[in-house]
Amino acid sequence: MEPQNSAGESLRFAVSVSRDRDQFFRLTCPSCGRDFKILIDQNDLQWALSSYCRRMGCDIGPESPGQPHPNRIRCPYCGNEDETVRMHTEETVAYLKRTISRELVIPLINRWASGLEQTFGGRGHSEGLLSISIGFKHSRSLLPVRPIHGPEIPDLKIVTFLCCGKKAKISEGWTNVRMCPFCGADVALI
After folding, report:
1. End-to-end distance of the chain based on CA atoms, in angstroms?
2. Who has the most CB within 10 Å: 36, 77, 94, 177?
3. Considering the domain boundaries, does residue 115 fall inside one?
4. Which of 70, 91, 68, 76 minimizes the C-alpha distance to 32?
5. What is the rounded distance in angstroms from the CA atom of residue 40 to the CA atom of residue 164?
6. Does 74 map to a domain?
7. What's the number of domains the chain is made of?
8. Are 110 and 101 in contact (CB under 8 A)?
9. Measuring CA to CA, which residue among 7, 15, 24 is closest to residue 58?
10. What are 140-189's pLDDT values in tens digits?
11. Contact between 156 and 171 (Cβ < 8 Å)
């Protein structure tokens, strides 16, 4: 990922999110609480994860060329439609927050605090009869251990939606899928 902070500086860091052996990524419906998986590639991961970087005050680099990514998806179980980023599992959200904090937030705080120390470090300032003394000492904080996401278990069955050709994984015994999670077309599992 290559986010930019508010000063326009470009920062590079890697985010590795677990997918199962079939390259499916787990999501959880915020409405019914059931897990399902969608087939995504690296460009899709950058698209899906960029909102968390934006919440931390940085932008992801230019969008990947090619097919535009949908920003909404439907749950194959209950039909709830929501932003894809709102369907990340709790584990994925926690991982992303820890990674962005480690790679972006803590280094920015360290740079800011170092700048304060250089400006005010132990020096006093006096003006006429009024004397003000400001001192600031900063010891650089160590980065936490790099978080790990996964491993992802190879569960659920693969369903191919003929309407748009996309694939998802749903629970083995579930046959009540009535709508494509991707394009919204009416479907019937047989």
Report:
1. 40
2. 36
3. no
4. 76
5. 15
6. yes
7. 1
8. no
9. 7
10. 667 777 777 877 888 899 999 999 999 999 999 888 888 899 999 998 77
11. yes
